[in-house]
Design goal:
AMP-bd_C_sf; single chain; GMP Synthetase, Chain A, domain 3; ANL_N_sf; PQQ_b-propeller_rpt
């Protein structure tokens, strides 16, 4: 608020605090030329909070249209339940003033906790959010609100996704008469103040709604213009047929003044100019011209290489479960969580619901966790608060008493639909004998029972953190992926595992005391840069002068490596986890979740070109002999070669059945190695895309391999289940291998001395250790040289510093350590107090750059 205007006083009305402020002079001079009715601040759901100055000519057409459509007169009683900070408040208030109707004013507290029957008595016009309306309860809605004898004439539901036809039907009594009770889906944004479209739901004509979708409706007035901006950025004026994209709302009359968008430009100079506002909503238009809400654009994720709109998936779940559903993404644990509304008395059909999910949802849509929630938390405007809901789930006291077996048992019951999975192996055997159904289900493997490989990996990560012995973490994942290991075997294994009782706090004390004894280096904080959301991408340094990195906020920054000052700022359409590749003194490349590879000028932020590969790009591309070689998560093709000058596609192919996460490895002038998430890896000729040789491992390959340069050239690569192999680069023949005690997601870093006989192999592991292996090429022998324990799993790739005498590694919990490469002794440490999934990079001047999940890119200076 203080950034928008200067606050001078406050006062309270109905337990709401109001601020009186003075706008900056630059704004007041423009506002004075407009016929401003009121000013309201957005909630921030469509971006940063904004101050909206609303002229009379913008809000009045809204009031006039609604009064006419709803046939409001002085006999009506309008319910004013919206808080004054929510623009529907203005509509409710002004409709009563316009028509001389009665107005019943109630606070949020009264709406949520007062006897609802008394509160709504005599009300004829009710405008509210679906979530707030649900608080009345199905029985009250059916037996009172929609009864023929009730006073209600019109119900307008807006501000959130409209309920499904199944849910609305559950609200209606058998004798419901549509003529006396009208139900509307109303839609709009504060930037357009207030409503833009409306559709009258007709419960008696259920066949009218295909795929159980209810349209947004038609514009409320002739001044409102709707357009769709599609993903390819096509001209919104030309989109007339079936299409999907972001909805834009425009008008030459209903134009609010928004300082962040309009600056000092006085739009009133051109009375015919149409101003469009972005809604942030993804919509679809069918062949009949009807618009359907899909979900929020910023509520989309990529999972198993597939783009998922969580709001759209929630609608799909509601159709299957016939109840309110919310889909949440736990970014920290990379878990998809389904939250289903469930009354205390209504828990009998959970198993049927889970079976519906397994049958009708795609593999990438399957949940990692299902929660049944009696009360969805709401924000002050009566909408479901997803952040509070996720926090409520994650902070459940039951999470602090988890054991490996209890987590797995909970997954079997909640997600896979097993009825009260036995807790101990004794119970398993007893129930298997007495109940054929349980025996049949528990006697099969995890994948055969309906689990997916992605769920197996998610479970292995979550349960692995609860295990004491690292080798058990690796073994657990192998058991889940094996068709020869039954669920009974898995549960028996988990019952016998020793839980990890060591606390993070105790471990940190040990590490700090160790640091004070051996610290030879001091680590000094230099600067940090805010990228607004998680920085999981690894930063790239260029000429010791530029540092570039992207984030989940779609922002990519190029900064001065010494001072941290911003050189350029680029915003793409989706999150960025791909590292930047510098090509020349003014051009760089970066891949994006939107399936595009961008060429951009890192000095000016100008996008020079973009290439679509129809699949998200996480892996860092390589430039080879004038070609761009890159991997993606594309379904049809996941490896591409483009000419760097013409951008023509030279060739493309599909390796394995999954996407490409690891970056390609340059084997020779004409050969490159690619690894797939299905465990496949292959040597490919860059001149024509032909595969020279191909092999396959048992588990996914997230790790980028490395090349040992010796007399025959050998490749070091690691699979998720902890196996590190060395193979001959020319034919892929495996020479030897090493088994780590945990899963490996980290890429491989090599340290080769002057002698070609010995090579040190460095990588991080999910068992919480930084590994250093010594490979002796003449004997084809690989041995553990040392391993150093950090305070949590190591996801990122270690980097070398100080003439390769020091290795830099980061743990997931934010611990950065400097370790002597020869002896594995700690030489310094730094605590970011934030999660780290980004891999550090080190400059020639021994500055360390790394991204964190607190939204910052950090720069540290290492001093001897």
């Amino acid at each position: 608020m203080d950034e928008i205007c200067t606050t001078h006083a406050t006062f309270k009305v109905l337990n709401h605090t109001y601020f009186i402020g003075i706008l900056p002079t630059s704004q007041t001079s423009i506002i004075s030329n407009r016929n401003i009715c009121y000013t309201i601040c957005t909630s921030g759901s469509t971006g940063e909070p904004k101050m909206i100055h609303v002229p009379y000519e913008c809000i009045y057409p809204n009031i006039k249209s609604l009064c006419s459509l709803l046939k409001i007169n002085e006999q009506d009683v309008i319910f004013l339940g919206s808080p004054p900070t929510f623009d529907p408040f203005v509509v409710e208030f002004f409709m009563a003033l316009e028509m001389g109707s009665s107005l019943v004013v109630a606070t949020n507290t009264a709406i949520r906790f007062t006897n609802s029957v008394q509160l709504l008595e005599n009300i004829t016009i009710l405008q509210t959010t679906p979530s707030l309306f649900r608080l009345l309860g199905i029985q009250t809605i059916r037996d009172f609100v929609f009864q023929t004898t009730s006073s209600l004439r019109c119900l307008l539901l807006g501000g959130e996704k409209f309920p499904s036809p199944q849910e609305i039907q559950s609200w209606l009594p058998e004798n419901f008469q549509h003529d006396s009770k009208r139900i509307f889906n109303i839609y709009g944004i504060t930037e357009y103040s207030c409503w833009a479209t409306i559709h009258e739901y007709q419960p008696t004509v259920s066949s009218k709604y295909k795929e159980n979708r209810i349209p947004l409706g038609t514009p409320l007035d002739e001044a409102t213009i709707l357009h769709i901006s599609n993903d390819e950025g096509a001209d919104k004026e030309s989109l007339n047929g079936v299409c999907k994209g972001e909805l834009l709302i425009g008008s030459s009359i209903r134009r609010c003044y928004i300082p962040q968008y309009d600056n000092d430009k006085d739009k009133d100079n051109d009375a015919n100019e149409i101003i469009f506002r972005k809604t942030g909503d993804l919509v679809e238009r069918d062949e009949g011209g009807q618009l359907f809400y899909i979900g929020r654009i910023n509520n989309c994720i990529k999972r198993l290489g597939k783009r998922i709109c969580l709001d759209s998936l929630a609608s799909k779940i509601e159709n299957l479960s016939k109840t309110q559903a919310i889909c949440l993404w736990d970014d920290h644990h990379t878990k998809l969580i389904f939250c289903l509304h469930c009354d205390k008395e209504d828990k009998g059909n959970q198993s049927d619901t889970q079976n519906q999910f397994k049958t009708h949802l795609e593999g990438f849509e399957q949940p990692d966790q299902i929660e049944y929630v009696e009360h969805m938390p709401l924000n002050q405007h009566g909408k479901v608060d997803n952040k509070k809901l996720l926090s409520k789930i994650l902070e459940n006291p039951a999470n602090y008493k988890k054991t490996p077996l209890s987590v797995f048992q909970n997954f079997l019951e909640q997600v896979m639909g097993f009825q009260q999975a036995p807790v101990t192996t004794t119970q398993i055997k007893e129930e298997a004998t007495n109940a054929k159904r349980i025996k049949r289900n528990l006697d099969v493997g995890f994948l055969q029972a309906g689990g997916t490989s992605f769920q197996a990996l998610s479970l292995a990560t979550e349960i692995g953190e609860l295990m004491y012995r690292p080798e058990e973490q690796r073994q657990f994942l192998e058991m889940l992926l094996s068709s020869e290991v039954s669920l009974i075997d898995v549960m028996e294994f988990l019952e016998n595992t020793k839980p990890n009782e060591q606390t993070t706090r105790e471990y940190k004390i040990d590490l700090q005391s160790l640091t004070s004894l051996n610290a030879d280096y001091k680590i000094k904080f230099l600067w940090r840069s805010d990228l607004k959301k998680c920085v999981d991408a690894s930063p790239t340094i260029f000429e010791n002068e530029y540092i570039a990195v992207g984030s989940h906020s779609h922002i990519l920054k190029t900064l001065n490596a010494t001072t941290g000052s911003e050189i350029s700022h680029l915003e793409l359409s989706e999150r960025i986890e791909c590292p930047v590749v510098f090509v020349s003194s003014n051009m760089a490349l970066v891949g994006c979740y939107d399936g595009l590879l961008y060429g951009f000028n890192f000095n000016t932020s100008e996008i020079l070109w973009q290439i679509s590969v129809n699949g998200m790009i996480k892996a860092k591309p390589v430039i080879m002999d004038g070609r761009i070689i890159l991997g993606s998560y594309g379904e049809d093709y996941n490896i591409f070669a483009f000419d760097l000058r013409s951008l023509n596609c030279l060739w493309k192919l599909k390796l394995g059945s999954k996407g490409i996460f690891s970056s390609p490895l340059w084997l020779s002038d004409t050969l490159v190695l690619f690894c797939s998430l299905d465990g496949s890896y292959a040597s490919i000729d860059i001149t024509n895309g032909s595969i020279k040789w191909k092999k396959k491992l048992d588990s996914p390959i997230f790790s980028t391999p490395a090349l040992v340069k010796n007399t025959r050239n050998e490749v070091v690569l690691a699979e998720v289940k902890g196996r590190v192999i060395i193979c001959i680069a020319e034919n892929g023949k495996e020479i030897t291998h090493f088994q780590a005690d945990g899963n490996i997601f980290s890429s491989i870093t090599l340290l080769q001395k002057d002698s070609l006989q010995s090579t040190f192999i460095l990588f991080g592991c999910h068992d919480g250790n930084l590994y250093c292996l010594k490979y002796n090429a003449p004997q084809s022998q690989i041995l553990l040289h040392w391993k150093f324990a950090l305070n949590s799993a190591v996801y990122s790739t270690p980097a070398l510093a100080f003439d390769k005498s020091i290795v830099v590694a980061c743990s997931i919990k934010g611990q950065l350590v400097l370790v002597d490469t020869l002896q594995g002794q700690i030489k310094g440490s730094y605590d970011f107090k934030a999660e780290i999934f980004s891999s550090p990079c080190v400059s020639d001047s021994n500055c360390i750059y790394v991204g964190a999940r607190d939204n910052f890119l950090y720069a540290l200076q290492v001093l001897q």
